[in-house]
Design brief:
The complex is a heterodimer. Chain A has helices at residues 7-40, 58-85, 203-220; strands at 98-106, 109-113, 119-121, 123-127, 131-138, 143-147, 152-156, 162-167, 176-183, 195-201. Chain A is of the alpha+beta class. Chain A folds into 2 domains: 7-42 and 57-85, no CATH class; 97-220, Immunoglobulin-like (Sandwich), CATH 2.60.40.420. In chain A, a hairpin with a 2-residue loop joins strand 1 (98-106) and strand 2. The chains are: A alpha+beta, B mainly alpha.
């Protein structure tokens, strides 16, 4: 799949990579120390020394405080960096500038409703280069609405409407982009097979599709 | 142990089902049942009870008590636990099957509407019964440790393992009532038609909150005894006292206290407002600091020491490795934005298997190996121990490390498609499971084999350990004050006193 990676996933990957590097470095130091100590201080024949305890002293307590301070600064920085790297994750976009789609999860499909009343099941068509807001709820049990390639998810909870948002990548001409939606919360017997397809169309193609849907829906009494 | 074999077999069964795409060994309902029982049994009926079982024997020895404060309560709590486990396993044989909701039993999937089978009700009642058993145990242990220390065992000289058990018990007393409450409310929903969790006005979130308010302290309940064991094994293997003991205990206490204020990090995707997400992200990051301090303290205990490499030591080394890897993968999940992708996928499964199946299970088996000569007066076969350790450690990593690359695979799915690209990772994991399971079983059986030898054949203190449960010397005077515990070592003192002999 040579599709463009959506912006939200790019941000996510950057944050993830940064956090992972720090994690790997921290872990390596600890594990390396452990292995080096085990090898270097292993018992050899003919050793008869008693090792004194390293008890609490001012320097140990001071060391602990320094360690805590460094960790706090590191984690705080990582939090701030994360917020900077994922600017769109935090604030809901402007409703008037977005396409708002209602998502209803149920055992075991996703149903999508467009602003003009068009309904689709198990697939959703979206215009390119647009901010999309999903109002997600459930008709029965708890599900999770996960846009896999966008790395954004929210729970679908009965009686509750949760919001997530994405920005679709640009598309030219008659090309389409295909993305996956899966359910990430065990919701019964066919949870394994619960999901939907997202197709991103260029704006003219999308409008054409929507018009076709609207006219066929109105004749069948949507 | 029986539960370990049942739950372990379930784990192997799950990996077999996931070995190849579109497998039909288990149908989706059976798979969900297997997942649920594997999780419940392992966390609540295997890991914690194994730790408490070791504590049951060792804590009285460590503090110089004859037994726990209430021996009959002790027996009652054991049989209640056993019976509750039998009920749970039996629930899958009822018509309609058992619970198939995952160990987290989310609402409203757990209500009578979506899980009509009586097996699910039975499973939930088994949970309530287990809470009774746990409450009895925690009262017993706390009383014992507070009141039944023998002369000379002051709070300052309390062994690290006993400290860790005390903290575990306090946390159990705090957390399990919430589980019991949730289980009873749910039973009321299922049998009497109340609407605590089936109501669409917050019923689902109510369960989420109650469950995780219990659930997060629960995972620390699982891991704290393991930390205590690692400390003991490291001290004896390295022939030195714990690095900065008071700081260590303070950090362990901090972890215990802080574990009650992080629970909402399991609910990052439930759509609660952003301030809550930020708050719990901060508290979760905060708890990682004393925990990392604990791990560093354990590693520094090996510094400038004299290490005897034995099977228990190796298991505890492995436990430090897994807790570090598991720990950092957990810290990554503390960021809500990252968690949107992690939640409900195999990344989370990898994380908690590293800390639970890895750290806790390895440390517990290490503890069994370590105290085996004390408990049984027999020595296990060291060569087999080391070989089975190496194989199980390799198998463990082959099994669980691929999970961190399976971020796109949701949890609790019974199969996957050929086109998902997940086939090779899943197959690798299954191969790892086939290596890890049998090797680990052999490591445990190695202990059982030693029982065939005659007892007292060997030195009852082969590690020349100086901790009080080995020497019987509770007052630190150099003389065994309790004859029933031996006192074979002529080395006096224990690790809380500064030694006058300084190495050059």
């Amino acid at each position: 799949m040579d599709q463009p990676i959506p912006a939200s996933a790019v941000d996510w990957n950057n944050f993830f990579d940064l956090a992972t590097i720090i994690a790997i470095v921290a872990m390596s130091i600890v594990i390396a120390a452990m292995i080096i100590f085990t090898i270097k201080y292993r018992e050899r024949k003919g050793q008869l020394r008693f090792i004194p305890e390293i008890g609490l002293s001012k320097s140990r307590a001071r060391d602990a405080v320094i360690f805590a301070a460094i960790s706090i600064i590191l984690l705080f920085s990582l939090t701030i960096a994360g917020e900077r790297l994922t600017p769109n994750a935090r604030f809901e976009p402007n409703v008037s500038q977005s396409l708002v789609i209602s998502v209803s999860a149920y055992q075991w499909d996703f149903k999508f409703e467009y602003p003009n009343g068009v309904n689709t099941t198990r697939q959703v068509f979206l215009p390119a280069n647009t901010t999309i807001m999903f109002n997600v709820t459930s008709e029965d049990v708890m599900h999770n609405f996960y846009l896999v390639q966008y790395k954004v998810s929210i729970d679908a909870i009965p009686g509750r409407s949760n919001v997530i948002w994405i920005t679709t990548p640009p598309v030219t001409g008659n090309n389409t982009l295909s993305y996956q939606i899966v359910c990430k919360e065990l919701c019964g017997e066919y949870h394994t097979f619960m999901g939907a397809n997202m197709t991103v169309l260029s704006l003219p193609t999308f409008n054409q599709w929507l018009n076709n849907q609207t006219s066929s829906n109105s004749t069948s009494g949507g | 142990m029986g539960f370990l074999i049942v739950a372990g077999s379930f784990g192997e069964l799950m990996r077999t089902q996931l070995a190849v795409p579109n497998n039909t060994l288990l149908d989706p309902f059976q798979y969900s049942e297997t997942v649920t029982l594997h999780g419940l049994l392992m966390i609540l009926w295997v890991l914690s009870p194994l730790g408490v079982g070791i504590a049951n024997y060792i804590v009285p020895l460590q503090i110089g008590a004859k037994d726990l404060a209430f021996p009959r309560l002790n027996a009652t709590s054991y049989f209640t636990y056993l019976f509750s486990g039998v009920l749970l396993v039996g629930s899958i044989f009822l018509p309609g099957g058992g619970a198939a909701t995952g160990w987290t039993l989310y609402a409203p999937l757990n209500t009578i509407q979506f899980s009509p089978q009586s097996g699910a009700t039975l499973a939930i009642l088994a949970l309530a019964l287990l809470s009774v058993s746990v409450t009895m145990s925690s009262i017993n242990f706390i009383t014992t440790i507070v009141k039944n220390r023998t002369k000379g065992v002051t709070w300052k000289r309390l062994p690290i393992f006993t400290w860790s058990i005390l903290m575990t018990m306090a946390l159990m007393l705090f957390a399990f009532p919430t589980l019991a409450a949730g289980a009873l409310l749910l039973t009321s929903d299922r049998i009497f038609g109340t609407i605590f969790f089936s109501s669409t006005v917050g019923g689902s979130i109510l369960w989420d909150l109650l469950f995780w308010f219990f659930g997060h302290p629960e995972v620390y309940i699982v891991v704290l005894p393991a930390i205590g064991i690692i400390a003991e094994v490291f001290m004896t293997s390295a022939k030195r006292g714990l690095f900065a003991r008071t700081v260590f205990l303070f950090e362990l206490g901090a972890v215990t206290f802080l574990s009650v204020d992080v629970w909402m990090h399991h609910m990052f995707t439930t759509g609660v407002n952003y301030t809550l997400l930020q708050t719990f992200s901060i508290t979760t990051l905060a708890i990682s600091i004393p925990f990392e301090g604990v791990v560093i303290g354990l590693v520094l205990t090996l510094y400038k020491s004299r290490i005897k490499i034995t099977t228990p030591f190796l298991f505890c080394l492995a436990a430090i490795f897994t807790v570090t890897l598991g720990g950092v993968t957990g810290v990554l999940q503390a960021f809500p934005v990252l968690d949107y992708a992690f939640r409900g996928t195999y990344w989370v499964v990898g994380h908690f298997h590293y800390v639970m199946a890895g750290t806790t299970l390895f440390a517990l088996i290490g503890g069994l190996y370590y105290w085996w000569p004390k408990i049984t007066k027999r020595m296990y076969n060291e060569t087999i121990g080391i070989i089975t350790f190496i194989i199980s450690f390799i198998g463990f990593n082959i099994l669980y490390f691929p999970y961190f690359f399976m971020i796109d695979m949701p949890r609790r799915v019974a199969t996957f498609t050929y086109t998902s690209g997940l086939a090779s990772l899943n197959l690798t994991a299954t191969v790892g499971a086939y290596i890890f399971g049998p090797a680990f079983l052999l490591a445990v059986l190695n202990l059982a084999f030693s029982l065939r030898k005659a007892s007292s054949e060997t030195n009852a203190n082969p590690w020349e350990a100086k901790e009080m449960e080995w020497t019987g010397d509770y007052s630190g005077t150099g003389q065994a004050t309790s004859t029933e515990n031996g006192g074979t070592s002529s080395i006096t003192g224990d690790y809380t006193k500064k030694s006058k002999e300084i190495e050059k």
